[in-house]
Amino acid sequence: MIRSDRPGGVLVAGSANADFVVRARHVPAPGETLLGGDLSVFPGGKGANQAVAAARAGGAQTAMLVALGDDDQAKLLIRSLEGAGVELHIRRSARSTGAALITVSDEGENAITVAPGANADLRPEDLPPLDDIAWLAMQLETPLATVLVYARSAQVQGVRVLLNAAPARALPEALLRAVDVLVVNEEELTALVGEHGSIAERLARTGVAITVATLGSRGAVALVDGDYLVQPAFVVTPVDTTAAGDTFCGVLVADLAAGEALAAALRRAAAAAALVTTRAGAQSSIPTRAEVEAFMAEAQPADHRPLALYCGIGATAG
């Protein structure tokens, strides 16, 4: 179904940002000014978050291709990535390292604005050799033309591709044809295929054989060659939802690279994402495999039927 005989680790090619975070009563509305708490700076960025999550998930060696400036923010990110055990391939840029401005509400929701900076300088020729790589994971915070070249290069070399189509945007069919696993949230799914139809019907229109929709506190659903897998969310009290989706992707690709079945990989990814929301920050909040396993051992079984019904696939999906 999804397993590959090709041995190897995970390469994450994508963004790294310094996250400038302020907590406030709620996410500000357009034109609204809020007084928030103290400013905190965390290592983040979709690509870097996913690389840390993959490395901490264990089971597969993790590397990252990233573009960074020559500044203190780059040093912060390098310390975090290397500290998690991620091997780095760095393109140095004359631009500043990417940054994200994040407001986190008292309910744990967030609003994020990204200044790409050096991330915009990641080029097609920067892709390292893929000899020891089984899975390539990417997002959309780096140039789309670069993402497309990387996906095609991986496809030609027999490397599986996981694309987290975030931030939301329309994508060329050429890219989707080179993707083995597509991960989207509801907004991103709408950007790809429109809002007409149920989630199940829209998943079937992406053109990717394995498409996973993450649905926040509801959980996740995957379309796999015409069949659906439903993974309800683990119940927690959220503090900060930053990096939850990235953690889901990183753990998912690490487990797939380690040879796990998709259903098991979805469950562990959902558990890791739930744990992230109980902690502040991005990479600093990502759990280890031992923490995820302990959490899963104590978690109560969830009823998948409400999620299945929400997605429009009935109460019989497993």
At a glance:
This protein is of the alpha/beta class and 318 residues long. Helix content is 31%, strand content 25%. It contains ten helices and 13 strands.
SSE string: EEEHEHEEEEHEHEHHEEEHHHH
Q: How large, in whole angstroms, is the Cα Rg?
A: 18 Å
Strand-pairing-aware structural class = alpha/beta
Largest β sheet strand count, sense and barrel closure: 9 strands, mixed
CATH class: Alpha Beta
Mean pLDDT: 93
Q: What level of helicity do the residues show?
A: 25-40%
The number of strands is 13
Give an account of the 3D structure:
There is one protein chain. By secondary structure, this protein is α/β, with parallel strands linked by helices. The chain has helices at residues 46-57, 72-83, 144-156, 173-176, 186-193, 199-203, 244-257, 262-276, 289-298, 305-311; strands at 9-13, 17-24, 40-44, 62-68, 87-92, 98-105, 110-115, 133-138, 160-164, 181-185, 210-214, 219-224, 227-232. The protein has a single domain (11-30, 37-311), classed as UDP-N-acetylmuramoyl-L-alanine:D-glutamate ligase (3-Layer(aba) Sandwich), CATH 3.40.1190. The chain contains ten helices and 13 strands. The strands form two sheets. The protein has a nine-stranded mixed beta sheet, sandwiched between helices. Strands 3-2-6-7 form a four-stranded mixed beta sheet. Helix 4 (173-176) links the parallel strand 9 (160-164) and strand 10. The longest helix is centred in the C-terminal third of the chain and has 15 residues, at 262-276. The two termini are 16 Å apart. This is Ribokinase. Its EC number is 2.7.1.15.
